[in-house]
Amino acid sequence: MFERKDSAFRKPEHESQGTAAPSSATSAAKKSVYIGQSILIKGELTGNEDMTIEGKVEGNINLKDHNLTIGTKGRIEAELFAKNITIMGEVNGNVYAEDKVEVANSGKLNGNISAPRVVIEDGARFKGSVEMDGSSKRAASEKSTIEKKGKGDKKAEAPLSMGPVNEKVGTR
Q: DSSP H helical segments within the chain, as ranges?
């Protein structure tokens, strides 16, 4: 008697396998990484997935075309490069986003922001400057490329030269 009821509620093997495949394919398409609060990372952190950080990172974080969330327990000493950046914890460093930077009311940012869209919620702490012109996407991309070249590349370290200035400033 129990066998019959049990078998009546079971799906045939081929049906259950068919329904499991789309859910695993969906989860594979939407990748996300979580870094817990007991984790400390020193160095460069790069990836091709969305990321949430609750731990501590010292260095640079580069998630081109992906979202970065700094959780309420996150403590970051780094420059951040991502498509969208949400700060709910603490960040000391410059932030470059291709689309949007959001500092939540629990967030603290000591550094400059370069992004086309910026949201700073009431109660958030922010010390730095904001650049929101159309070139911020290009500037973030260029800055990221220079960071990847490293310190040994003379092109990345070359000082800017404007040449001689022939006019006095403020005189006509």
A: 2-9, 13-29, 136-149, 154-157
- What's the pTM? 0.65
* Residue pair 105/88 in contact by the 8 Å Cβ criterion: no
Three-class DSSP labels, 121-162: CCCCEEECCEECCCCHHHHHHHHHHHHHHCCCCHHHHCCCCC
What is the mean pLDDT of each successive set of 10 residues along the chain, which is 172 residues long? 48 44 46 93 95 97 96 98 98 97 98 97 97 64 52 43 45 46
- Report residue 44 as tokens: 């460069």
87 burial type by CB count under 10 A (0-12 exposed, 13-18 middle, 19+ buried): buried
